[in-house]
């Protein structure tokens, strides 16, 4: 987990069979004018009109004129979704100084299969005339039996994307999550138990650093549309055999639960779940704005390990807004939230606003945060203490 990814610059534009300027480019015209342009000959051999329905949707979701002057790093696993994204972006990009770059991260798992994925991505980038960066997790075993948590693998991958984007001067990292991924995420969180924030699912954009933004241009498109697009292109892609392993909850949701819900309950279940996520995200924006205003009014002092709050502005706040304000405080401070349950947040809200009804002098919460009695100014003191033994909520 702690190993630093090794970057391989597998292909430079100057060394490619097709230079960047040789690859197909569309003039800077509105999507409505694309029909006047001739068809484009792809490297994989099939002539497809630039007004392909998938490309229209991609143009609408992320207009090329918004990023043609900036470099974009595309995360490509070799699977159908990321390959469709790469082909689509390569075909709709317009003239400008920005580059389209390819990034692939080899986790050191799945043995020869993963090696072949990396080789496929390298070859695809070469055929498209694009610079390719392949990262390998150093020190990790290549045994297919090696297990790592999904969270650990995701952190490794996005750290590589972020560092590569910095090295290349890329403003955006584009990844290929679809509407199906959004639906799976929302359903997964519902099953495990989540609040309103969790229902927002996968965000369309989020910062990876002050200089790099992650974007998901396909988040509203169903996965099947991407497969159909690749069929029209005659484009190949890789299949990850681990996606068929039903020992993993996410795979069971994708392979069994969602198809069953669509068959027996609602054929539009994916759209229903993505619509729920969109509405929850809109609600989240409003709630966070109100919470930020409330936090600004109640925060009296702040250090990395301690904050002091004036409880007075919090007394009239609804419990929902009070919880969101405390969540925002935790996030701003970088304090751990993983073990904080709904019961903990409710108890914390009670402590901050009215104190402990049991008369305790202090209360400890998961993540090593202690809430102490009012100080001389009447402010509540919250401090994070390393090694603090956490009191469990009954």
Give a verbal description of the structure.
With 394 residues, the chain is an alpha/beta fold. It has eleven helices and 14 strands. It has helices at 53-61, 80-92, 111-128, 150-168, 179-192, 196-199, 223-233, 249-264, 269-298, 319-333, 342-354; strands at 5-11, 40-41, 47-48, 71-75, 100-106, 131-137, 170-174, 205-209, 212-215, 299-302, 306-309, 363-365, 369-372, 380-384. It has a seven-stranded mixed β-sheet with strand order 1-6-5-4-7-9-8, with helices on both faces. The protein has a five-stranded antiparallel β-sheet with strand order 10-11-14-13-12. The longest helix has 30 residues, at 269-298.
Summarize it.
This protein is an alpha/beta fold.
Task: Record the SSE blueprint.
Blueprint (H helix, E strand, L loop, with lengths): L4 E7 L28 E2 L5 E2 L4 H9 L9 E5 L4 H13 L7 E7 L4 H18 L2 E7 L12 H19 L1 E5 L4 H14 L3 H4 L5 E5 L2 E4 L7 H11 L15 H16 L4 H30 E4 L3 E4 L9 H15 L8 H13 L8 E3 L3 E4 L7 E5 L10
Parallel strand pairs: 4-5, 4-7, 5-6, 7-9
Antiparallel strand pairs: 1-6, 2-3, 8-9, 10-11, 11-14, 12-13, 13-14
Helix pairs in contact: 1-2, 2-7, 5-8, 5-9, 9-10, 10-11
Provide tags for this entry.
single chain; 394 residues; alpha/beta; five-stranded antiparallel β-sheet; 11 helices
From the helix content, strand content and strand pairing, which structural class follows? alpha/beta
Report the end-to-end length measured between terminal Cα atoms. Answer: 34 Å
Give the helix tally.
Answer: 11
What number is the mean pLDDT?
A: 83
Biggest pleated sheet: 7 strands, mixed
């Amino acid at each position: 987990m702690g190993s630093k990814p090794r970057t391989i610059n597998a292909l430079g534009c100057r060394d490619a069979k097709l230079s960047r300027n040789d690859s197909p480019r569309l003039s800077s015209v509105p999507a409505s004018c694309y029909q006047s342009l001739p068809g484009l000959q792809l490297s994989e051999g099939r002539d497809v009109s630039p007004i392909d329905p998938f490309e229209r949707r991609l143009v609408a979701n992320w207009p090329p004129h918004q990023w043609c002057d900036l470099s974009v790093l595309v995360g490509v696993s070799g699977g159908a979704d990321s390959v469709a994204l790469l082909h689509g972006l390569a075909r709709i990009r317009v003239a400008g100084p920005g580059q389209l770059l390819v990034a692939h991260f080899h986790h050191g798992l799945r043995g020869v299969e993963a090696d072949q994925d990396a080789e496929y991505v390298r070859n695809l980038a070469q055929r498209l005339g694009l610079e390719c960066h392949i990262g390998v997790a150093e020190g990790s075993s290549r045994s297919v039996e090696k297990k790592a948590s999904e969270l650990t693998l995701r952190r490794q991958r996005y750290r590589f994307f972020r560092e590569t984007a910095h090295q290349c001067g890329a403003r955006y990292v584009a990844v290929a999550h679809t509407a199906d991924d959004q639906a799976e995420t929302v359903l997964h969180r519902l099953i495990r138990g989540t609040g309103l924030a969790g229902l927002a699912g996968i965000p369309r954009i989020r910062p990876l650093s002050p200089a790099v933004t992650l974007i998901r241009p396909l988040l509203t498109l169903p996965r099947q549309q991407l497969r159909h697009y690749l069929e029209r292109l005659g484009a190949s892609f890789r299949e990850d055999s681990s996606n068929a392993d039903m020992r993993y909850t996410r795979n069971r949701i994708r392979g069994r639960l969602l198809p069953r819900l669509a068959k027996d309950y609602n054929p539009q279940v994916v759209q229903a779940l993505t619509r729920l996520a969109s509405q929850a995200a809109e609600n989240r924006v409003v709630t966070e704005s109100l919470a930020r205003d409330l936090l600004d009014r109640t925060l009296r002092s702040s250090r990395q390990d301690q904050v002091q709050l004036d409880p007075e502005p919090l007394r009239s706040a609804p419990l929902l807004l009070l919880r969101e304000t405390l969540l925002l405080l935790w996030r701003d401070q970088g304090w751990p939230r993983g073990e904080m349950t709904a019961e903990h947040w409710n108890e914390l809200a009670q402590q901050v606003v009215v104190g402990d009804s049991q008369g305790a002098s202090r209360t400890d919460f998961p993540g090593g945060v202690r809430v102490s009695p009012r100080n001389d100014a009447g402010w509540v003191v919250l401090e994070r203490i390393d090694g603090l033994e956490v009191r469990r909520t009954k």
